[in-house]
Amino acid sequence: MKKITLSLSMLLAIGKLAIAQSTDIENKFNREEAISHFSYLASDELKGRDPIRPEIEMAASYIASEFEKYGAKQVPGATGYYQLIPFMMSTPPKTGEIVIDGQTYEQGETLLVLSGPDLEGSYELVDVGFGLEADYEGKDLKGKIAVSNVGAPDQMSPAALFSLGAEKIKLAKENGAVGLVEMFNIPSVPWQLVSRFLNRTQLTIDQGEAGDLPYIWVKDSKNSIKSEMAKGEMDEARFKIQKKTNQAIEGKNVVAWIEGTDPALKNEFVLLSAHYDHVGVGEPDANGDSIFNGARDNAVGTVAVINAAKYFAENPPKRSILLAAWTAEEKGLLGSAYFASNPLIPLKDIIFNLNIDNGGYNDTSIITVIGLGRTTADNLISEAVSEIGLKAISDPAPEQGLYDRSDNVSFAKHGVPAPTFSLGFTAFDDEINKYYHKQADSVESFDLDYAVKYWKAYILAAQKIANMSEKPFWVPGDKYEGVGKSLYGIK
Ligand SMILES: [Zn+2]
């Protein structure tokens, strides 16, 4: 009996503590201030926070000055509150043309010049299989063009087609080639889609000299070019790639940190992150609006991180907090991926990433946590959300692969447990599509009472995780459990 009474009173004490935490956040939360951050970041003035437009700078400097104002500190190794990223902004060539065996391939139609300088003249073609290391053995590429297939025998997903590019360009260059032309022959990935996406201004991480080689995709679904080459009937092509512009620009992740209070646990970091970029300006909609304000995607998340900076700078938890506003998520997770490859805090010291990203919401009684249930801290997220008066649900559309499509995956794939805290949605329905990547995604169409609850729940969830006694980890059997074990040195 005694034992039971004790544990009951302990339970009551824990309950009171939980209530105290959420009440403290409720009391200290400044609604007007948070909404003013939100209105500014999603304002027309910032022109949709596009990393290839100058107005993104105003967003970055606003976030940095709020971090500073609230007392979050600069991260050692950063430039002030920024992690600077060398971006390359490139436009398609004015003329992009290759003539192979009497047939002309043109930019945007059956040809895409992806990177590199202009190229003119006739060059010999050499088949290099998939363009991987072994494919170059015994072949002379000096002054010639390497012709390969896109992807690799076991890697044909759209993501793999892109990510293999950098390594293949490097190999072609090392072997003396003057260009790399890949045959796009994958029926499962529609060329039209690829072409629409790539035949416009692109932002990539500047590869330096390694990227200094013309890199071209040619649509050849029937493999006719390579079979002609194999027959020995054709081994030359005429190139006319003119006026492609490649401009180095500087990108900025905004980062800061708050020291934890526990002498041992303060060496561990909980990363609170959200991307602050959006898709910029486009064609006007029916109302004549051409600015994509991106209130849901992802000004609301950026404000959540700013609010967390304010609360935790005044009320630090046991573990340290790393705050990050990523750039260029919409260009392919560039900012978060750059940080994960060039971490200012060692990744093994980042024990959890509570990321935020949003398409929209269709249910203001819930919060949707992408990946809920995959880590041992997730019960704390659910608890925090309930204490604010909402309910946490897991990803309702796993077939969309959302977990692997936002900044959290930049960390998850290195082993850091990393769910994404999203506005409440139960399906990708018309209500979501009304706003998702549309001009209508603005603060005017946002339920601000719901925003305030969302922001409070995020702080409370982060606080619980930063104070939990054991270190959070992936649940057994998770896709990222193995890489997590090697990151943290768990046997
Ligand atoms: Zn987003």
From TrEMBL:
<dbReference type="InterPro" id="IPR007484">
    <property type="entry name" value="Peptidase_M28"/>
</dbReference>
<feature type="domain" description="Peptidase M28">
    <location>
        <begin position="253"/>
        <end position="450"/>
    </location>
</feature>
<dbReference type="InterPro" id="IPR045175">
    <property type="entry name" value="M28_fam"/>
</dbReference>
<keyword id="KW-0732">Signal</keyword>
<dbReference type="InterPro" id="IPR046450">
    <property type="entry name" value="PA_dom_sf"/>
</dbReference>
<feature type="signal peptide">
    <location>
        <begin position="1"/>
        <end position="20"/>
    </location>
</feature>
<dbReference type="Pfam" id="PF04389">
    <property type="entry name" value="Peptidase_M28"/>
</dbReference>
<protein>
    <submittedName>
        <fullName>M20/M25/M40 family metallo-hydrolase</fullName>
    </submittedName>
</protein>
